[in-house]
Design brief:
The complex is a heterodimer of chains A (252) and B (94).
Chain A: E1 2-9, H1 11-26, E2 33-39, E3 43-46, H2 52-55, H3 58-63, E4 67-70, E5 78-80, E6 85-93, H4 103-120, E7 125-128, E8 132-135, E9 138-148, E10 151-159, H5 164-170, H6 175-182, H7 186-189, H8 193-197, H9 203-218, E11 223-224, H10 229-243, H11 246-249
Helix pairs in contact in A: 1-10, 4-9
Chain B: E1 4-12, E2 18-26, E3 29-37, E4 40-42, H1 45-53, E5 57-58, H2 61-71, E6 76-78, H3 82-90
Antiparallel strand pairs in B: 1-2, 2-3, 3-5, 4-6
Helix pairs in contact in B: 2-3
Classes of the chains: A alpha/beta (252), B alpha+beta (94).
Chain lengths: 252, 94
């Protein structure tokens, strides 16, 4: 499996690169791939089935100069606070023997790699629900997966530091959801690596630990590589023609 | 002349995700519909196919159920179920 070192890109480019890897993998031009990235500037990503108008407070978005992007994966709206929020993405062929056909089971496999990675970092995390990772029953990581052309793409966040106030100011929260969530506020339900480990997080060390988690789960060594010219060309095209466009953002 | 009404329905699936439906309804017939939410569906395009399939369909439980069954066969839904969709779609009826 190929490993792409940590990158920092704007939201549309982050999503364009993920899809470019998926497409290149589907054409057998690249191996299975794991990478990590930051959304810089900070961004809100919305799930494929969400309505941007209904989820995002665009007045606040322009005030705070935050990017907004629609993902190709389902799930909910996420605030990615640049370096306070490490994103992983893994692209694997469905033929990989470690990947169950069933979506729920495959979430468990990949989220399990995050759990074992965190254990190397000294954090006792567990799987929760279908695609969450929790520490002391508080969510620290959420993931979303899609499958296209025989390839699985799963990306997800790992909270390094959490700022629920900014997050909530950017998202419109529907009454129904408030009701459900008022029971426990975000502060009570979400944690971060900083909170759990009570010191500054060394990103390089964290990534090394997570890599080990993936290596153990997939019983395969990660080999450091880079994005191919083909992938970068595809990514630029997807950036220009899809992810940076209003048509895509307001598609649904 | 028949009047088209814009309807929005939100439903938090117990223990699941949020389902939001926006539809144009005319004499208990769906003229246009968008199914939104933070759920997962594999493959994703199945939801768009379902939206197309629901156009011009009368809001009758058996009809809607049939379309759900046909459009979502082999589709893996996470956070919502066909029953949840049926429940919300039937709420579009006056």
């Amino acid at each position: 499996m190929r490993f792409i070192p940590l990158r920092e890109d704007n939201a549309a480019m982050c999503m364009a690169i993920d899809e470019a890897i998926l497409l290149a993998r589907a054409e057998n031009k690249v191996p299975d791939t794991l990478r990590f990235y930051f959304f810089t500037p900070p961004a809100v990503s919305i799930g494929y089935f969400q309505s941007a108008e209904e989820e995002v407070d665009f007045k606040k978005v322009s005030e705070l100069k935050v990017d907004v992007v629609r993902r190709i994966t389902g799930g909910g709206a996420v605030y990615h606070d640049s370096r306070n929020d490490l994103t992983y993405s893994i692209v694997v062929s469905e033929k990989n023997p470690k990947i169950p056909r069933n979506i729920r089971e495959s979430y468990r496999v990949i989220c399990g790699a995050i759990v074992s990675g965190l254990s190397h970092f000294g954090i006792d995390a567990k799987l929760a629900g279908i695609n969450d990772v929790v520490v002391n029953n508080k969510k620290i990581s959420g993931s979303a997966q899609t499958r296209k052309r025989g390839v699985l793409l799963q990306h997800g966040t790992l909270l390094i530091d959490v700022n629920p106030k900014i997050m909530f100011s950017l998202l419109k929260v529907s009454d129904e959801k408030i009701r459900d969530k008022l029971i426990k506020s975000i502060e009570e339900r979400v944690t971060s690596l900083k909170k759990e480990i009570k010191r500054e997080i060394e990103i390089d060390k964290l990534i090394d630990c997570l890599k080990r988690g993936f290596e153990e789960t997939f019983e395969e060594e990660l080999e450091e590589g880079e994005l191919t010219d083909y992938e970068m060309k595809l990514a630029k095209k997807l950036y220009e023609e899809k992810y940076s466009r209003r048509e895509w953002l307001f598609k649904r | 002349m028949a009047i088209q009404k814009m309807k929005k329905i939100e439903y938090k699936v117990p223990g699941g995700k949020l389902l939001k439906i926006s539809a144009m309804v005319e004499s208990d017939k769906i003229k246009d519909i968008k199914i939104h939410g933070d759920f997962f569906a594999y493959p994703e395009e199945s939801i768009e196919k379902l939206e197309v399939g629901l156009k011009n369909i009368p809001l009758e439980e058996s009809k809607i159920r049939e379309i759900l069954e046909n459009s979502l066969r082999e589709v893996e839904l996470i956070g919502i179920s066909k029953e949840d969709l049926l429940h919300v779609l039937m709420k579009l009826k006056d």
